[in-house]
Amino acid sequence: MPSTRDLRRRIKSIRNTSQITKAMQMVAAAKMRKAQQAALAGRPYATLMNEVLAEVAANAGDFTHPLMEVREIRKRAVIVVSTDKGLCGALNSNLLREAVKFPKDTTVYITAGRKASQFVARTKRQLAAEFTYKDAPLFSEARAISRFAQELFIKGEADAVDILFTNFISTLVQKPEARSLLPVGEIKAVHAELEEGPADSFKLLKGATEFLFEPGADQVLGSLLPHYLNFQVYQILLEAKASEYSARMVAMKNATDNANELIKDLTLEYNKLRQANITKELLEITTAQMAVGN
Questions:
Q1: Are 81 and 116 spatial neighbours (Cβ–Cβ below 8 Å)?
Q2: CA angle 131, 133, 137 (to 5 degrees)
Q3: Separation of alpha carbons 258 and 256, rounded Å
Q4: Catalytic residue numbers?
Q5: What kind of fold does domain 4-24+250-293 have according to CATH?
Q6: pLDDT tens, 266-291?
Q7: pLDDT for 196 beyond 50
Q8: What is the CATH architecture assignment of 25-195+203-249?
Q9: With 60 as the cut, is the pLDDT of residue 207 above it?
């Protein structure tokens, strides 16, 4: 049985840990709000751009582009968007569990985030490139990732490119998701669950039956497709950051609550042991007095 001194040390140590996790929870909560606002703010633009591009592509006739070339998949590139740090629950574990499902011999990885890079090195998989992105992702960072993937696809070094990330659903729910990036097929919204927003203004275009391109459909769509891919990667980085800070805030809150609960249990045990020691000492004193009195 531990002594009262050991229990006091454990209580003090856990209380210090509780203070640290509480501070980390507050920091994550502040960053979470900014990350969630950035992710939600980007969804209307992403959805509107995708709808415009899909409508224009459907009316562009026999338009072809190297990024739309469909070929037999012999080599696949996977962009894995993870976090740089841990302490965010099972977020990275769930994500990397999905990454393992891709065949090791025919898959090359492009990582964004230190945890994904460590996973590729640890499992001895093929790493094509390693990228970093800030707490507030920049469009230039997403563009660099997207351009590298496009170059792999156009050069024929990859026949398909997928992107694996954690999609932000809510503060308590983050879901790992894999999406096809290349070749560009049916263009869909980055986040389908969009409420009313600027995309409603696009309804005016859907009634049109003829489009006039200047200088031409090939040039217009040829410029739109790379930008479409760049922004899709950018929106995914925003979703991943919102998921990261939401998961970290929840994980730190759970850690703080568990520490406080453990402190209560140890305090109760400490008080019981202390009371038992006091009772034992009183009994020894009483027994000694009785022995002296006899």
A1: yes
A2: 140
A3: 5
A4: 88
A5: Helix Hairpins (1.10.287)
A6: 999 888 888 888 888 788 788 877 77
A7: no
A8: 3-Layer(aba) Sandwich (3.40)
A9: no
**CB of 163 closer than 8 Å to CB of 145:** no
Closest Cα partner for 252 from 31, 71, 50, 76?
31
For residue 207, the Cα-to-chain-centroid distance in whole angstroms is 38
CB atoms within 10 A of CB 119: 20
Which residue in this structure is represented by tokens 């606002």?
37
With a pLDDT cut of 90, the percent of the chain lying above it is 45
Which residues is 176 bridged to in the sheet?
166
CA atoms of 147 and 160, how far apart (whole Å): 14
The helix (run of H) or strand (run of E) holding residue 139 is helix 139-154
Residue 1 has what DSSP assignment? -
- pLDDT per residue as tens digits for the range 112-132: 999 999 999 999 999 999 999
Which residues have a Cβ under 8 Å from the Cβ of 82 and sit 6 or more positions away?
Answer: 92, 95, 96, 111, 112, 113, 114, 115, 116, 119, 240
Q: What sign results for the dihedral spanned by CA atoms 138, 90, 165, 188?
A: negative
Q: Assign 58 a pLDDT band (cuts: 50, 70, 90).
A: low
